[in-house]
Model the fold of this input.
Amino acid sequence: MKKLIIGFLTGVLVTIPIMLMIQEPKALEPEIVYVTPPPQPTPTPQPTPTPQIIYKERLTDLEQVVANTKDSCVMIYAYRSDGSGEQGSGWAYGDYIVTAKHVVEEAKKIEIFTDNSNTASRGTIEYIDDELDVAILKLNTRTLPSVTLGDSDTLIEGEKLVAITSPQGVKNAIDECIYSGTIRYDTGTFITISEGNLIGGSSGGAIFNHSSELVAMVTHGNKGGNDAIRINDIKMILEKLK
Done:
């Protein structure tokens, strides 16, 4: 009996491993693998572009007046038969040069120097107005850009003006000055210019407002003050040239 029990147990112990070995294998479940992406390189910071500033050239009022008018202004030398002479200034209107009468009065030879040339051109007297001290010359060799005439009746006391004259032979010197009102003589009414260096040689020179319009012409210059002929009075003479 004992042998029988031992044989049974031995058979069980042998049978169980065999049964386990012949069982249907289980399906393998897929293994999930989490892959970490490789680190991306940090982008190199780009410098912020500096905005480009384009500066547009802007002329001041004074510079603009000079740019618009200087080529119309001249320096004049007048020589008389007795060897004496006079130096003055002038400006172009149409085909003519306008200056002060006393600059060219009784002149036998007139030389006119334009702004862009040191070579003299010859001028001849076309008309003289004794009352206003105005002379009209004809430039024989070239035509200059004409000034634009303004309205001297619209001037306001204290208004800044620009004179382009040739004081003491300095061709077309630029001078900012001030309209200081009117003055009356037996010969007429003139405007007074202050804070200007319109000394000898400036007679006949042009005076412009800040709109580049000619509003007066210097008649006599001195260190204390300056008288100028109103352009509205000269207009009556210029109309005779047409």
Notes: The chain is about 15% helix and 35% strand. The chain has a mean pLDDT of 84.
